[in-house]
Amino acid sequence: MNTKEMQKLAGRLSFFIGFSLMIFGLVLFIASLSDVAKVATIPATIFLLIGVLFALFAFKLDHRLQYMFLAAFFIQVGLFLLLTILHTIPYPFAKVWPAISIFAGTALIPAARFRTNQSLARFIVPAVAFIILGIVLLVFSLDLVAFSFKKFILTAWPLILLFAGILLLLLFLYPKQDDQDNSH
C-alpha cells in the first residue's frame, strides 16, 4: 500500500470510530438521564451501529438494495430496543417482540425506493404482509383481544388463505418493469 491509500484507509477508520463513539456516547447519555443501567444499552447501541454501517455500505457500494434494507431494519430495531430499555415503551420486550416483523416490513419500503429500476410492488406487497403479520401478532401479544391466537387461527384460517391469495395476485397483476418499458 502506498501512502495515499494508507491515508485514505486511516481516514475511513477514523470516521467509523468517531461515528461509533458518537452513537455510543449519545445512547449512554440518554440512559444516564433516565437512571438506566448503561450495560443495558449495549444491545441497542450495537444494533444502531450495525445499521449505520450497512447504510454506509449501501451508499458506498453502488446503492446495494440488501444493505439499505438491513440498514433500515437494524436502525429501527436499535431505536426500538433503546425505547424499551428507557421505558418509553411501557411494555417489556417479551410482550412487544412482534414489532420486529413490522420493522422488517417498513425496512422494505426505503429499500424499494432506493432502487428505482425495480418494480415497486415487488417490495410493497411483502412489506404490507410483514406489517400486517406484525400487527396481528402484536394484538395477541399485548392481549388486546379477548380470545387466544390459537382460537383465531382455528376460526380465521380461511381469511389467511384469502389474504395470501390477494397478495400473490397483486404481485402477479402489477406490471413488471420490462413490460412497462416495452409498452412505450
UniProtKB/TrEMBL annotation:
TM ranges: 12-33, 39-59, 66-86, 92-111, 123-146, 152-174
Keywords: Membrane, Transmembrane, Transmembrane helix
Full protein name: DUF5668 domain-containing protein
Lineage: Bacteria, Pseudomonadati, Spirochaetota, Spirochaetia, Spirochaetales
